Amino acid sequence: MSGPNLDLKPETATSWSVGVDIDPAPGLHFALTCWDVNYKNQVLANLSNLAILGTEAQYAGTGIVLRGTDAATRVQHLLAQGVTLAGGSFPGGNITLFVDGRSQNLGV
Fold first, then answer.
1. Cα separation of 13 and 17, whole Å?
2. Least CB-packed of 22, 90, 104, 105 within 10 Å?
3. CA 50 to chain centre
4. How confident is the model at residue 23 (pLDDT cuts 50, 70, 90)?
5. Rounded mean pLDDT, 94-103
6. Which of 44, 46, 94, 42 is nearest to 73 (CA)?
7. Rg of the chain, C-alpha, whole Å
8. Which residues pair with 38 in a beta bridge?
9. Is the pLDDT of residue 20 over 70?
């Protein structure tokens, strides 16, 4: 599945840094910098992740990768909501895998 994610929130971050530079002698320079970045609602784009099935365990419980009846149930739910899948003509048959390639707020 690809397309817009209407539940997507803006990614934000708070950060800080502190540093010191010391020149104790000509030609001798020391520098130390400490920093930290804390993300909230970090956006991850899965559509370009061609190896997503190789890292499927990372997405457990997110609904990004579903198999079997969970996949079929999710697709039926989306179709019932009027979401267009597969370019507008959804193929029939058994659904065994669902990958939600939309951007998601998965980062902490």
1. 13
2. 22
3. 13
4. very high
5. 82
6. 94
7. 22
8. 14
9. yes
- The candidate with the shortest Cα–Cα distance to 46, out of 3, 85, 102, 86, is 102
- Whether the CB-CB separation of 95 and 72 falls below 8 Å is answered with yes
Please identify which residue in the block is written with the tokens 């079997």.
Answer: 68
103 by Cβ neighbours in 10 Å (0-12 / 13-18 / 19+) ranks as middle
Distances (CA, A) of 23 to 17, 19, 20, 34, 35: 20, 14, 10, 18, 21
Token pair 């951007």 in the structure block, residue: 103
Give CA separation, 82 vs 1, 51, 73, 79, 104, in Å.
Answer: 13, 29, 15, 5, 20
**Is the pTM of the predicted complex or chain greater than 0.70?**
no
The Cα–Cα gap between 25 and 57 comes to 53
At residue 54, the 3 state secondary structure works out as helix
